[in-house]
Design a protein that fits this description.
heterodimer; A: alpha+beta; four-stranded mixed beta sheet; B: 307 residues; mainly alpha; 13 helices
Chain lengths: 573, 307
Amino acid sequence: MVGLAKRAQPENTVRVSRLRPLLSKTDSHSARHPRLLALIIACAALLLGGCSGETPVEQATRAGILIMGNASEPKGIDPHVVSGVLENNIVSSLFEGLVGGHPSEDGVALPGVAERWEANQDSSVWTFHLRKDAVWSDGHPLTAEDFLFSFERLLTPSLAADYSFMLYYIKGAEAFHTGKSTDFSTVGVTAPDAHTLVVQLNGPLPFLPEITKHYTWFPVPKHAVLRYGEIGEPFTAWTRPENLVCNGPFLLKSWRINDHVEVEKNPTYWDADTVTLNGIRFLPIINSYTEARMFRNGQLHVSYTLAPEMIGLSKKNLPENVRTQLYLGTYFARCNVDSPAFGDPKVRKAFSLAIDQRSIIDNVTLGNQQPASGLVPPFGDYPASTVVNFDPEKARALLAEAGFPNGEGLPDIEFLTTDQDSAKALSEALQAMWRKHLGVTVKIKQMEWTSYLATMFEQEYDLAAGGWIGDYLDPLTFLDMWMKDGGNNRTGWSNEKFETILKRASQTGDATERYQLLKQAEELFLSEQPILPIYWYTRNYLISKDVDGWDPLILDNHPYKFVRLNPSGDDSL
Amino acid sequence: MFRFITNRLLQGLLVLLALYTITFFLVKWMPGDAFTTEKNMSEETKANMRKKFGLDRSIAYQYVIYPTRILTEGSLGISTSKSREVREIIAESFPASLVLGLAAMGIAVGIGVPLGVISAVRRNTWVDYGGMAIAMLGICVPAFIIGPILQITLALQLPLFKVAGWGSPADVILPAFTLGLVSAAYLARLTRGGMLEILSQDFIRTAHAKGVPASKVIIRHTLRGGLLPAVAYVGPAFAALISGSFIVETIFQVPGMGQHFINGIKSRDPFLIQGVVLFFGVLIVVMNLAADIVIGMLNPRVRLGDE
């Protein structure tokens, strides 16, 4: 050891002498320090004082660019491949379907690519007349042929589009998608001429225009898609910013992973005169606290969400910027009807009656949600059910009737939920309610998201937290999932009468009768209660006063072409 | 030296193979898969999806084909959650992480090393206690506390800083500080420990006895040996910093690599996970090697390749 250390000494000495000139240089450096300091101060002053004092939002408002929080990095922008809300936000700026949405009224269809449309008497055959001035962003005319191509593409198995079932209303679509037919001419869509599209459905569907608002029904440019690959070929380069050809009010300008997606106004859009925004910037902000702070910092016009814990504070600090609106979704708990405890509808009802929904909303979720008195959230002409309520007396009586007075003799029950903090708080509240009102102690099992989904899909639970967001504005989007083989049923529950009623509803062309039948199906479902409805969703978010034309819509799809930005001098931020 | 580096690189390859094997099977072992989505896909769609991503083949085939493709095509697979080449995703995300990591390392070294040196030299004085208390705080207080505190205290008050975002050079400062603080704290403690060990050695006493000025003793004689533990730490820590941090990136909206680790796992994206883990593995191997070479140069007691 000592020898080694000694060996180090001469080397050190050598290095020292070599260092000397360097050190002296540093000495002269220190003489320049005052100047360096002055430079630093000048830079800092420039950075601090040099700013015009304008926030990014103020600059963006002047430039006509809307900045939106958009939750997370999109999975893509191909309307046939994506399947989520945040992707929809982007896709609906780039593409337009047969009909468009109304800026302030739910369930109203405005002309899109189709100028007008009509149905036969029982609404089972629809004819869409496409506008002749519709063009793709590269100038190529948009014709009925593009729609035929798009439908065929979505239904081609090798594309593996997970929302292809949205086209199953079309005659022969399911058979083609599942490979029972390989001839696309067996699918009920035809184009008698370049500007007419005829869609033949399996049965009457008076709300078809509502369904065509969904991005799965959007056209994709045949010529551009085929330039980069076959019809059913996944992962081709056609959606790259440099390649994308679209038909919506905006064009894709730039896209950087986990940073932003930016779109700019499309001058070739047929209704470009209505569009006043010059662009939209979508920011994938995962952290909702960061998002709220960015809003306060003047970095966002509209936030994607507002964390429950932030709602109270934001209402105090930014009262004019907090928005709460009803959203087409129901939060509930699934009962596994094949589990020992929940085979009896009386037990399920007892558990439902013991949930104090109001208290959960006021103390846990905090987002002004509505107590779910039924399955389908209230909207339009469809009357909401009022059968689910809080009645602990009746709950106890039902449980006793089922043979479990005060919960005695009831098998162990586990409540499966996700690993989010909010899920934990909610399940603890439910646990306390069931203990207090029924005398039952339910165990909580939290699992990471995908594990939770896998466990729930395998039906390995007693009770499981769940929710459903409607895909389109019709009660059916909440009802048909409970059919026997429905991929999202997962409760083990099924009922022949329920399915018969839904079938009858699908065969009637009369809108009033149809709603009555759907209502009947919902009441039947609720009398059996394979799920315990808890609340109807709301959407809470922050919005700048600069934004106009952003009215509450239950599907939360705001047609961007009607959104306007006006400097409001919003000094609350 | 050459033999040393080749040996270490061969060892590195073994490490990467082990890393790949463990990751591959852990991914397969997780409950659910890439196609377990909230709105359940039909079995046909799932089968189509598996086929699309080559996940319908046997496990053995999948295990072999992935590294084969890396070597033959340079492809890290296609992300199931983003439908893009993992290679492209990394290429697009790494620059931000690299910039952030470099700045964080700069902050860590700039704060940690001087703090450690001063603490060691002024051992057992209030300077030492104060410095080490701050270091302890840096180790203990997590980024998800420091980040929001910086956002609220600095970003919301000063026009220079934005709460989050990645556009101007000023945007690097807050996330880099948040990310670098923990490393600064470790470095301070490691430097102090290393310095103290050297300061108690005979040759330092000799230097003092010969009348060498105290500052020279520190700078020329003590630092060289005293920094060794810090250098050993800096190598792998640097690899960790530049490969991104989920927490810092999501707090400050930095478009870096860190999110891919967590999101890959959450969405059971086999190729994204394997790709970023292997990328991180390569960084670790290279940085460790670099650290060893630097230590060899600083410490004459270590002779590379002499064993």
